[in-house]
Amino acid sequence: MTTYSNHIKSQEVEKAARDYLEKRGVSVTSIAEIVYQMQKPYNEMLTLEECIDSVDRVLEKREIQHAILVGVELDVLAEQGKLSEPLQSLVAQDEGLFGVDETIALGAALGYGSISVTTFGHLDKAKVGIIEKLDTKNSGQCHTFLDDIVGSIAANASSRIAHRERDIEDGMSKRDIERRDIEARF
Ligand code: MG
Fold it and tell me: Under 8 Å CB-to-CB from 108, ≥6 apart: which residues?
């Protein structure tokens, strides 16, 4: 039987994932700006602060943290030329038919339902905000995985806002809304 006495603490994993984003030039606010663009047409009262809070809540999810850790690690190793061929070239060149970056990010978007999945698909095509910057291949950095992961985080935070808004509209108490958020943790 597996014992978890030496497991890595959740707080350490979350801190590492947030540090990875920051080191690779992705702030919480830059992701929140995408969320704002995605949800503002459906919610006139939406503020950037709410979007920042939603991104923060999504970053508390282990599935997301793990996707960040795996994706950024592969980007950095490709940047340093440390992967084996042919994976090194596939990742470094962001080869068009290499779809594992999207698969990991899409997997991390599944926990937030269909709005998250469709928003992720839209962001993958439209390259909104910082995603476009990450997708630009002449930066000298490799963001093959990170651009999709950022899309996934933004899509999750957008879906979370859409569902919360409905709960608020339906007169659900703050306590119940928060409880649902906590229970949705995975
Ligand atoms: Mg990519």
Answer: 63, 64, 66, 67, 149, 152, 153, 156
Q: How many domains does the chain have?
A: 1
Task: Confirm whether 39 is domain-assigned.
Answer: yes
Residue 75 burial (CB count, 10 A): 25
pLDDT in tens, 71-121: 999 999 999 999 999 999 999 999 989 999 999 999 999 989 899 999 999
CATH number for the domain including 139?
A: 1.10.3760.10
User: Does 137 reside within a domain?
Assistant: yes
Please tell me the distance between residue 58's alpha carbon and the centre of ligand 1 in angstroms: 20
The shares of helix, strand and coil residues in the chain, as percent rounded to the nearest 5, are 70, 0, 30
- Residue 169, pLDDT > 70, answer yes
The answer to whether position 3 is within a domain reads: no
* CB-proximal residues (5 Å) to ion ligand 1: 101, 144, 147-148
CA dist 113 and 91 (Å) reads: 28
In terms of C-beta density within 10 A (0-12 exposed, 13-18 middle, 19 or more buried), how is residue 167 classed?
middle
Contacts of 20-23 with C-beta under 8 Å, sequence gap 24+, read: 20/68, 20/69, 20/72, 21/68, 21/72
Q: Indicate the pTM of the whole model.
A: 0.93
CA 146 – ligand 1 centroid, Å:
7
